[in-house]
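As a next step, the fold was encoded as tokens, giving this record:
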Amino acid sequence: MAEARGYRVLWHRGGVKAAWQPHRGAITLRLGMTDTATVCSLAHELGHAHHGDPPGHYGPMELRADRFAARLLVSPVEYALAETQYGPHPARLAAELGVTVKVLKTWQTLHQKELAS
């Protein structure tokens, strides 16, 4: 998806998990993370790229990128199936869906707001 949108994906050692570098049109990811952490970090940074965020993000931009990642990575159908099978346990659901607990909880919050609307 990143490359389809014209962004380069680069790798770095040490430091932050991931970063959107608009001046390079690139997202960098730290080597050595788990697959789940890598995918979730990439999705989060895609959120920054999608919204044209500058470097040095702050609160509202971070929340918006978290929401973008949650929408991108969690399918309502797959979530419902996992919850039916495993119950409401966030860590188990996140593992089953291949996302971090943070992404899962962000998705749950978004979904609850949509249901309330």
Notes: The chain has one domain: 33-116. DSSP finds five helices and three strands in the chain. The chain has a mean pLDDT of 95. Residues 33-116 form one domain.
